[in-house]
Amino acid sequence: MRLRKQELGDRNIVGARIEMKRKELGMKQKDFLARLQVEGMDINASALSKLEGQVRGVFDYELVIIARVLGVSLEWLLSVN
Predict the structure, then answer these.
(1) Residue 64 maps to which CATH number?
(2) Can you tell me the distance from the alpha carbon of 33 to that of 52, in angstroms, rounded to the nearest whole number?
């Protein structure tokens, strides 16, 4: 598992939770990316990495897809605890 080279950004509050849950599920980033794309989210590997690193903003419709793929609620994604 590669370690993050840069500090987390401040463009979203969900990136760290998305990455944590994805890893908890044992899902590689490329597999997660493929599932997001199948669900209709137009995103590439670089954008996903930036989203998880909190250096890219996230749209509301993307949150719905991400929550569905990860099997979590929107409330969980948006909680900061």
Answers:
(1) 1.10.260.40
(2) 12
